[in-house]
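job 3f2a | input accepted
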Amino acid sequence: MKKYISLFPLAVFFLIGAMATVLAQEEPIEIVSEETITIADLGASEPRVLPTSPLYFFKELGRNLQRFVTFNSVSKAELELKFTNEKAAELKKISETQPDNTRAIQKAVENYQTTQEKLQKKLEGLSETSQSPKVDVLLDNLTNKVVKHEKLFDEIIFKFGKKEEISNAINNAKAGSENLMGEASQKDNPAKFASRLEKVLLEENGGDLKHARSVEIIDNFSAKAPEEVKEAFQRLREDFSEKLERDIQNLVDKEGENAVKEKILNTPGDFAARSVIIEEIQKRAEERLSEALKKAMGHLETVLRKETDIAQKAKEQIERAEKIIQEAEKIISQSASAKISAVVSTLLTEAKEHLNSAKDAIVQEKYGEAFGQARSAEVLVRNALKFFENDAPRTENLERQLKELEEKIHNYENLIKERGLTQEQTKNAYEILNNNAVSQLRDARESLAKGDVEKTKMYIDYIRKTFSKLSDILERKTTSAAAETEATKTPVETIPQPATPITVSCKDIQEKILELKNFLALGKMPESDFKAKYDAYLRDMIICQETKNSRTPVPATPTLIPTPVLPPTTISPTPVSIIIISPRNGENWQVGSFQKISWESSGIPSNHLIITVRLRDSAGTEYNLLTNTPNDGFEEIAVPASLSAGSYALEIKTIVGGRIILTKSAPFNIIVPAGSALRVVSPNGGEQWTIGNTYAIKWENQGNIKSVYVELYKGGVYLSGLGGLGLNWGAPTSWTWNTIDTPNFEPGSDFKIRVKSDSDPSIYDESDNYFSISAPTPSPASCDDLKSNSATNYYFESCKKGGYDRACFNKYYWNYQGCGRSVEYDGCTVSNMNADKNIWCDTGLVYACADSDKKDYYGRGTVTDAGKNYVDYCVDGSIVREYYCSFSDSHPTGIVAEENYGCAAGCENGACKKVEKTPAAVPEQIY
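job 3f2a | predicted structure (927 res):
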């Protein structure tokens, strides 16, 4: 009996363990198999003694003994890296063999982090850099293993993320990885360090969307990196983002849209960061791919909104978006170019609007919406930076890019050698690397040395595309021997072969056409070859567009039929010429004035880009005016105030058919008048003005300046812009200022007016002495007063026409403050410093939120709010996007809100399908 009693607890233990295993398997978690990290990947042997074992003390004792007998600083760092690999392997083993032992997994992570911190200190103590061969090898090993550790962490969070203790411990370890990589990057040059990381990411195993994780890892490692490394990582991120876009496109073509959704959700990683990456691609992708990603984003949104820490993630995303906006504004403000394109300006403005919406949503505790708005802000500002860098590339930035490309060449050379690939096996790879990348890099350096920024940019773009093709060749998971043999037979040209199969997107074909044109423009191809290849690509584009429009497969141009190359004698080129009409011979242009440049061209399309429009003085010095402007026949420019008086010629330069076309005008004169081209006449000092009255500001315009700004200064400090007078005014010399149009300012006797040129702010004049603006003795105005006054009633009508139900005024000076919507915000008290002096008045427009189905998930309803309609729709076959009216103290008339609702029986026609319920059986009565 005693024997049976002793065995009973053991039987219960095994029974509970078996039940736990069954319960754990009720909701299996499927990770894409190729994405899992093995113990072999970690570079460690199978751990036999784990931290849960009482014998683990002796294992740690042995490690401490190894530390004691290791003296060289690099060797010490190598040893700690070895221990972190071993502890990562222990973590992997425990997570597999003891998945229910939360404390053991947590302890294994903390154990890893202790060694990680020791490795960090060893790196900090290194006095040598990557110039030392030993440190060079150490940094290679470190980068390789930290990437694998990151992937292991993602895998564990994917499996155990709902267990807060494990999630917190892993996040601490991931923060430690950021610190490690930040410290390691300081022992290396930025270009080389980015190249190390690229090599590791290219060699990593993974599924169809492995580069989603690559971009996430680059973002993580950028967090603690020095500024120059961060810039190099950003360019690396763009490369891998483009690779991911191609991977997704291939997956859609092969397996359809559902495969994209499943693999995005079943690949471990940071889903919050991934949603940023996917939205970036979705915004720039062509229609079909964009739609597929939009559906995948719907599922990703649902997962994110259910996260227990969504509030924290929303706050972190807001901080990240705010930081990248500040960094973008800093980069733009520090640029030597003062020109900011309308696209960049619009994107930055929209990014700030999304950020403000995110902050508002946080206040309202709408964390899912806050995260989405902040994510969109980050995507918009990233796009703005891309456009800005393209518009105004910095010379030092181009130099860094060339260094990075040089490191890439070494990187790819090593990759090819390490894989033992001979020139016979991968002729394409060797040709791309040696004949294309190396020669183009040399040409790019020569162009930069000559100061030809545009040409340098063109070469850099081409080299990046070259490396993109090379990395695709090296990343192929399986290549049959027959295919390899066939590849060696294919003649390699300096540009991609035409007749692209239809599985390639229209966007890819457009890029190939652009690449072809660049090659011709650089003089790397005879016009006869260009013509034949261009025609072939054009046929592919027509087929691609027809396929896209019809949504039915159209046979591609067969790739086995060689494209005919027409002999040069069959081409009869159109005569090409440019004739400059203005400026005319002997004409006078004054500095600061606006002048029209006009020309006529023959044999050049109107959308062809003129590379340079510049001035050349009698000494031969060049002054660039415009770059990459369309061949539309005219441009209006401001004559730079920095020019000296003298004789000049205008030059127009472009490239057509591989030939440089350069045209010069007849000599003309640039004159600089004595004194300023502008002179303020009134107020010029001593005047006494009163708030509430209207005054004429006058000046002399001696320079025929066609666009000026009028500004108000107080005590020598800029206070407000009073107006901008543009080209339609001719050469303006006066401006009528109603003082109530300027927002609240304090009266005083230290005011000045400044008038400056819009095109050249260095041309300006201001009042010689101070004048005074005094305050009247006002009495508070009511809304009735403001509506009955013709000057202020105009704003009521304006706001009402704009769809606003409120107009804001200063009740003492009657200054107009802005329009507002009661259902959205209260700008009268929130956005104004002197809110206590302001008054809201109704415009007469009334808003009320209305929901036709009263938030019924099983009926398709329409919500009307602020003049807009929102109709319920199916996000996919199982989720409905339900719009409804949300009422609160701040929104008494209601405001539109939305919810993604999971339909039990599926979603159809914008509503959940109704579940047919089976009547419950009536229990038999027993008497």
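job 3f2a | The first strand starts at residue 577 and ends at 582.
job 3f2a | closed
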